[in-house]
Amino acid sequence: MKAEENNLTISNHDFKVKSYWLDQVADFGQPVDYPIVVICPGGGFTFHSQREEEPVALRFNSFGMHAVVLEYKLIDKEPVYPLALQELGKVIDWINQQPASRHIDKQRIILAGFSAGGHIVAAYNGIATDEKLRKKYHLDQFSGQHAAAILGYPVIDMTVKGSFPSDDKVREEITPDKALWKTQDLLNKNSKPVFVWQTRTDELVNVINSLMYVEKMNQLDLPVEYHLFGSGIHGLVFGTYVTKKPGKDKYLNAWTAKWIELALNWLEMMKLIG
């Protein structure tokens, strides 16, 4: 495996991606093109949680997937959106421009988003698959399309009371475009399959978020798999010592750690890995 950092640019705006490329295996006797996952970590749009970056990338590596981490736009003087969507579109375009020597299966690009990063992925799954919205948010300048998405304790609807974000000021800092506040309403018949997981006791992102997205997927008759675990705090990642914050045992939850295996089983069922 080879780890790299690359700087990409959109409209004079630079952003960083971290990539984890699998090596070819000589024992196979022939080259293999691997699927690739693009990871959008959480952090409340104020930072990128490193607990949801390299540990997640390496786990996907272990299941035969290249991995890329997108360090998307955060809250500052300008809103997060629509630039964050364009950054994700640029990353997919960048993947499609990679040489054949990278051995990427460009028909199997998977998006994975956690918490705030889940909002970006959830919104992208609606906008990038709708011709009019793709043009409206200037995603039509980029080539390529994702094949599926994985959402972990995602922010879906920013208007849910008692859930992140807590007030209109933060919502406006993320985006004044109210059409982006409810990602479930962006879904359409061309949106891609989704795997979603969350815990019922999530104290930051109310569980109704994931439920609304899954329900809309069902209404559109789109492939979706949903796992609601009975307990666990927000931001568990794997719920193991790998991603536990030092001295904080509340980040341990062996049962929810099974989500990654469930997600990979789902990807195999969807013929997106293996």
TrEMBL record:
Q: Where do the BD-FAE-like domain residues begin and end? A: 32-216
Q: Which domain of life is it from?
A: Bacteria
Which InterPro entries does the UniProt record give?
AB_hydrolase_fold, BD-FAE-like_dom, GDXG_lipolytic_enzyme
- Keyword Lyase part of the UniProt annotation: no
SUPFAM superfamilies the UniProt entry points to? alpha/beta-Hydrolases (SSF53474)
Q: Which Pfam families match?
A: BD-FAE
Keywords carried by this UniProt record: Hydrolase
Task: Name one molecular function that GO assigns to this entry.
Answer: hydrolase activity
* Annotated protein name in UniProt: Alpha/beta hydrolase
